[in-house]
Records
---
Amino acid sequence: MKKNASFMFYFDSSSEAVLVAVSLSPELKQKIPKTNVELSRSKNVLSLKIKSEDVSSLRAACNSYLRWIATAINVKKLV
């Protein structure tokens, strides 16, 4: 049975959403075993959908992507 997780991130501007989406693009090219990750953007909203074969793979993918998004946001604040 597939496991799913969905996250939506609301940014102050579409340029911030684009910045985070672009910073995640290299990670999207590297596949996490047993998972399928979709990232989409509509104006200032970033949507992350993760599907996995098991809970442990889902948890690992969620932790990775949420940490990468938080890092991108924090770096943007510093610059």
---
Amino acid sequence: MALDALERVRAICLALPEATERPGSMPGFLVRGKTFVWFADNHHGDGRVALHCKAAPGDQDILVTADPTRFFIPPYLGHHGWIGVRLDRDPDWAEVADLVAGSYRLIAPKRLAARLAPA
């Protein structure tokens, strides 16, 4: 499951302009050296397969409150407005792609972010 989820996340992230991957126990996806997505598989024994991505101001609270079975506040990044998205509970991959694109827009330089279709 985790490997399949990683492959899907990888395909979504690396399709974005100038996106790169930093492999490791918690792979990260970057644009010009700044991380816009982390992939987590049982991070610190939490039992989740998830991605962590930056969310627009206010979105973190809205998502976690609306569906706490799919969304959570990730450790270390949550206080910076990042959101955790569970990938081990039949994720809506179109929604995941939208969240990844939103995170990319918040992290990428404006000229690169502008190359994406409007949100």
---
Amino acid sequence: MQLPLMTKVRQLFPSAALPDPLHTLRQELQRTPLSLAPGARIAVAGGSRGIANIAAFTRAVVDHLKEAGARPFVLPAMGSHGGATAEGQIGVLASYGITPESMGAPVESTMEVVQVGQLEDNTPVMINKLALESDGIVLINRIKPHTSFRGPFESGLMKMLTIGLGSHKGATLAHTQGAQGLARLIPAWGEVILKKAPVLLGVALVEDPYEQTALIEVLRPEQFSSREPQLLVQARENMSRLLVRGIDVLIVEEMGKDISGTGMDTNVLGRMMLPGIKEPDEPGVNRIVTLALSERTHGNANGMGLADIVTRRLFAAIDFKATYANAFTSTFLNRAYVPVIMETDRQAIEAALEVQRIANPAHARIARIRNTLDLAQIQLSESLYHEFKNHPLLEQVGPLAPMTFAEDGKLI
């Protein structure tokens, strides 16, 4: 099959990165003094996403707590991720550079939870046992639109407090009411937990379209309800996206839990695949081909069901235990369905074009991205580029050239 020529294109999103994010965080922490008893055990909650500067930020919080006389420890707050095991979640943190050695503090983990209350409909509210038994909890998380629902609280501090620190049992319970149920449960659970658990601070992070830290605010618990929805609006405005429309085939080089909770960000794909949730109108992608899993996803391929075709090398890297633990917790089983498998990258791309019965594949509208987080530089096929070449936020940075493949069919 004759594939179209491709060209590298830069998407010119406005940058708002902080010049020295670590300095900003330290200033924010100094502006929010803590009164702690000597030797207080403080849990610093760490999540499972690939957040910019996360290891340095976590270490800065640990050091700040030590200076205040506390004994901090790092606690995974990631629901059922890491295979829903304490050891697996420690491994996820380690992949981000968060270890006892790098933090200068212990990393402790448990899946055991304690019920601290219930909602009016008798839904129990759970929280991680180590967090509840600590003398204080500090959350560190990125505020970002969620990939499965819409509400005033999506991915952020309140979700980490409820779903993340709910561990496997709490996260499973929270997802039983479906995607839209999360929009209701997260603030309701959060209100109970904030009353029952020793939450001290939340470090709220907002990133720019280039995945760089654009804003840092240290919030006290009483500020979560009012300030986080405002930060979510800003995060949504900052999101990178595909600026072209009407794509025959979207090639995604890698997916993973470090990239998005669904492996690939549904806001970028324009594909939700959830009952009762409206499919986005943009960018309009007919077929999605996903080539590989990221190393930091540790075999968790949750979200592969969003693709139409995957490669044999992606399939071979799947840890089904970790993937299914995640899918069962979310209840969105279709997102863990195995798509059509093709032996090589080239065969996968050709199959996606063949199934659309495109008369001349050389004229196909193809976009290629590294992953759904890294959208600063993408590749467009000749026909797609010529349609959008006058877009004010697109800049061609390479000549038109054929897609190249290794002898084993892997896309170079």
